[in-house]
Description:
Chain A has about 100 residues and is mainly alpha-helical.
Amino acid sequence: MRTLDHPATDELELDTVLAALGDPVRRRIVLQLADGHDEQACIAFELPVSKSTSTHHFRVLRTAGVISQCYRGTAIHSTLRRDDLDERFPGLLDAVLDAARR
Amino acid sequence: MRTLDHPATDELELDTVLAALGDPVRRRIVLQLADGHDEQACIAFELPVSKSTSTHHFRVLRTAGVISQCYRGTAIHSTLRRDDLDERFPGLLDAVLDAARR
DNA sequence: GTGTTAGTACGTCGTTCATCGTACTAGGCT
DNA sequence: AGCCTAGTACGATGAACGACGTACTAACAC
């Protein structure tokens, strides 16, 4: 089984996380994950970019520690790392999600 | 008297604000402002960059709506737009400040 | 096996951005 | 007037980034 690297909770960096959340396409992914669409493959997200660009954004989110990903067959299962983010940067994710929903 | 442009509260954009807060030098400025150092000229901030780069960062913060600036003689007086940011993006500034202080 | 599907690797292109130095302006002080 | 100080304008440079297409791999279904 293929594996994917994730940073540990105490390795999360504010710079990286803010950079990850700073892109509108990535916020769109995070929003869809937050709204419960976390049982679908990357390709099923509605994004205005190509497949390879989509891969790029998912990887940025993962290496920043915003989401975690694991393989399910050929597809990838992504989830928001809510608890980890809240532990390290309390309130940040919720504030961004809140702001993004307007 | 020279004047400086500021976006209205309802014109603040999440993208721009996140981009502004995403830079470590600018977060340092914001932190110093939040900690009460808001009665000093731009040049008095302790920043690891040149004077012209410093001007650049202050302008990014102002045009994003994170700070407001007005002339006091030749110097510029900068303040955090706490209330405006809280009105438009509740909790965001505090979450970032909190995270930046670790 | 073949074919299909989901995602990756890689190289490229164009844009944006942080940084700088130099030359300049506006306001205050003597 | 002359000088100093705080900040700006402008142009240059190099790095980072978002976007793309093409060619590839891994897992599943048949």
